[in-house]
Amino acid sequence: MADREKKGNAFTNNPIVKAIGTQKIVVVLVIIFLAIMFSVGSPAFRQYSTLVSIFDYSYYISFMAIGVTFCLITGGVDLSIGTGMICYALFGGHLITKVGMPVVVGMLAAIALGVLIGLLNALLVAVMDLPPFIATLGTMMITRGLGSLLTGAMSVTWPPAAAENGWFRSIFKLKMNGKMIPVGFILVLICVILMSIFLNKTRAGRYIIAIGSNKEATRLSGVNVVKYQSLAYLISGFFAGLAGIAYAATFQAIPPGTGAGLELDAIAGAIIGGTSMNGGVGTVTGTLLGVFVMSLLKTGFPYIGLQANWQQIFTGLVLVLAIFIDVLKNKKTA
């Protein structure tokens, strides 16, 4: 038993493991295991088109997950990002196709509406001190209805890639020599790097972490808790708007009244990546790795014959398992 403990300590105390983080290494191993499992289960999984599908799904989930990571670190949550993402995509698309606005205006409008809903969440959670779960559940319903209201309950299509104003799609997927290149991953990586620097290297980022660790102690130390807690929800709203653009670039049509449940994929990705539901702990890079686990599961299950209902069951089990591990970790450190 003592030998096993020594080996465990030797692993966790390894400088490389310390630098990267045990959780991230475990998640990378899970990604490798899943990739091998699906590849062995179905040779078709090894096709290039599968890789493109994995990236397609990961774009908009990654953006939502990056944003919600900040809310989770403060000890809160943002349940409005799934339906919000669809609402913002519908709003931007409506301005482009129905009103005749330029694509850039539609994209900026999608992000602006996301920030506006983020501001509403900040008002409810940080200023009015409502429970984040209840407050953002309310805004989830608001964005779901708002998307249908703005478009008259009609699906919206952003300009196709072949159209003159369809250039925005090439930000996420570029066609070269007959193959689709998932270039959007570069944008995701840029966002991950920038937000990692913001979270770990700036005063605002450190205050966001401090709020999640001990809100009252942070307030007593002179930090404007309302300001920095609000900032977390504004960041979440911004990235939900960006996710709306990524979603519009990935799919041909955007149906209103959808998106519920997608926020759970983003939250699961963040928790799998090491962000604690109790707040005070989390990394943006870990979140990205967690999202890739979710992307592999979503893309890989159909290749081994699992239908949509089973996929939802397994996704739910993964979320429960991730939360259970998080609870165990918190008990150990308590």
From TrEMBL:
The UniProt record lists the keyword Iron: no
Compartments where located: Cell membrane
Protein topology in the membrane: Multi-pass membrane protein
InterPro entries attached to this UniProt entry: ABC_transp_permease
Annotated CDD domains: TM_PBP1_transp_AraH_like (cd06579)
Keyword Cell inner membrane found: yes
Domain of life where this protein originates: Bacteria
Protein keywords: Cell inner membrane, Cell membrane, Membrane, Transmembrane, Transmembrane helix, Transport
TM region(s), chain numbering: 21-40, 60-91, 103-127, 180-199, 231-254, 266-297, 309-328
Protein name: Autoinducer 2 import system permease protein LsrD
